[in-house]
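Take a careful look at the protein record below. Let me know whether the structure tokens fit the sequence:
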Amino acid sequence: MCRILCLVAVAAVLNAPKAISCELPPHFENTTIVEESGIRVILATDLEHYSPGSEVTFYLSVTNLGDEVVSFYSPAWPMQMFSVLPGGCTDLYQEGCLDHVVFMHPEVVYFPGDSVTLDPGECSSWTHQWDGLTQDEDTGEYRVPAEGLYSVIGGLYEYQGYPNPILFVAPPGGALLTISLGDVSVGAESASWGHIKSRYN
């Protein structure tokens, strides 16, 4: 079913007219809308009360406001690449349990080994396998490639007992944009509601 939906989404994007707009479903809350470098990203969740291992549905849309085609990998389908024509958009959904934590460092994305989960029988993790990322065997750090396609990497901050979904968007050139829902702080790095951080490898 997911494969069919993927194909339908891609076909819709490739045939989309100029200035199309993805609309957020009314039951979704905790919405962040961010625009950067000609791309509008909307991230939302319908989760109201969180407990480790609970299931939640995320909504993600990417709108291309620029003049060139934008390509990215979806957290819902890590091996599926999507392309959005200028003026077009695509929206995606992901259901799964969220019991992992993602930390951001100045030049790396770090996933502690005991926090990443992937159980095909029950739920899927946004932060498991990603083409283009290299992992340090000693530290477990995942480095964002300096060049390549846009990569959308989903994750979660555990903060005061509530989840804070977050996206790491790595466009060509190595800039790392952090898009966060909610207020979180990790060491010297912090991410707040609707705020983008730009980092360079």
